Every structure is written in structure tokens, then in C-alpha cells.
Amino acid sequence: MATVRMLPPATGNATHEVSGRRYVGVVGTPQDVPDFDAPTLQANGWQITDPHGSGTTSTRPANPFKGMRFTDTTLGVSILWDGKVWRNPITGASV
Known about the structure:
The protein is mostly beta strands. It has one helix spanning 38-43, and strands at residues 3-7, 15-18, 21-24, 31-34, 47-55, 69-72, 77-81, 86-87.
């Protein structure tokens, strides 16, 4: 299951239920949600922070495309696939 990192709305109701899963948002705190719940949350004011997904180092996409970003929650950083390896886009180091 792929996940998407989202931010809850800054104002209004940040608690939503999608298909029996309850999401309680804290303003400014991202949450990783299943990609299939993201459209419903987005329709309720939540914002996608990384459209290509997020997860632990072990759940990185198996077949990334060049330029793909992924939020690695193990490292706590958004990383970039350069066509050969995952890199920290700020330092340029492979991760």
C-alpha cells in the first residue's frame, strides 16, 4: 500500500473519517495516509505535501522515474531519484 504525506487544514475541522479510518489532524503536523484516502481528505481541505508518496526506507518505490521525489520517514527527509540512486537534494549525497 502506497502512502501520501498530507497536512490537515489550517482552519476549520481537521477530523475526518474515510471508509472507517479516522484522521485527526494537528495544524502543521504532516500525516502519512493511504493513497486511496488522499482524494477524500484533499476534498476536505487537507493538502498533499509529496504527491509521489512517503514511507520508510524499506518502502521506497521499486521502479522510480528520474526526478521522482519520495519522503523517506526513516531519514526524515524528502529524497530525489536521479535515475541511478536516491539522493538528498540539499546535500547531493546518496541515501
